[in-house]
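# nightly structure sweep
# worker-07 picked up a monomer target from the shared queue
# config: single-sequence mode, recycle default, output format = structure tokens
# input follows
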Amino acid sequence: MSRRYLAATILAALIGVGVVLLPAQEERSAPIPEGVSETYQAPAAGVLSTVAPPAEPSVAVPNATGDACLPTMTQAEVDAYFAKQEEHFRVTAEHLAESDDGEMALAAALLLQGRGGTAAVALERAWQLAPQSPLVAWNILRTCRDGDRSNCDMDQVEANAIRADGDNGAVWMELAMLQLSRGHVDRAELAVRSAIAAPRFDSYFIDHARLIERALEAGGDSTYTERMITGIGYSAALVVSYYGITNHCATIDASDAVWVDLCQQLGEKMYADGRILLDRAIGTSLVKIAMRHTGDTEKLERATRREEGFRERYLELIVPVDAQNLLGNDEAVLRQHVENHVTFGEIVALTRLASEVARLKEVDGYDQCNF
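# output follows
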């Protein structure tokens, strides 16, 4: 069984994460919310020692039926492949957990998630070594928001996230959800305003994937395609649904004009600046939610049409099997796709991938399954 074929199988499963998460319905400096210290302090040792690691990603491998690129594989073959890869990646991650590079320690934490305290120790090491790395700060913030906060200095964690990437609206969204979870609606409002004012909105999807790929390269005995697809899988497990915000916007009183307006503006921000399709799709849903509160049926109809239209475009871009096959079988195309994602965002990357598929189909002797 070709490792390339199995890589294409895994990729087909992972790209579909966007379909599952897609909502079915519905140079500026960002200000620091009142009450969050502007003075950065180095994290105290042990601050994260008992914080629960992020949820472990699950990867379902589909049957190859109907896909001409994928040979028939027995479940035993698939299980044996994953067992071997899991053990190899575990050994690599445990080695990286002791790295003096904070982002490599973070990669180890992500690869070891679900393995008890090992991941938490690696995450704390990342926090000690590179507290102002945007990826480290983002994962610390999310872990403290979702896990046991007893050992998290939340003001310190918040201030650090802002210093690491305060021009990123997605960071302020995380802060807004944290404040809502703590019952601090006024501070959540300030964070949402900062998200709207921020010059970009990036939830670090491709950054996490590339980090995992670089980390696994240190372990050897794997192809770029296998490493990057593994990275995509772990990154998919970190995708943010922003439920805390969407739920708040959906349940506010229609008479709360301030929050209705904020929800609309935030949705427009995500739709315009989101680096990944899912963020933009959530943006269209937020606008529709806000329009529902206004009672303006004409605006609600326009928002609904835009949401449905974007959903159709979203599905057209991420579903085609031929594009998945091409990424799983041609390393050069995968590398260019990742570069396009980094430079231009997911919509441009997927649009260019679709164009490349169409171009190659016109080439005599082209076989998307063999390069």
